[in-house]
Amino acid sequence: MSTCNKDHRSDPYFTQLPVDQGDFGRHKCAGCAYEAGYQRGINRCMSIDMETDFQNLSESQADAVRHKSPYVAYAQGYANGLFDSY
Ligand SMILES: [Zn+2]
Question: Which domain of life is it from (predicted)?
Answer without folding.
Answer: Bacteria
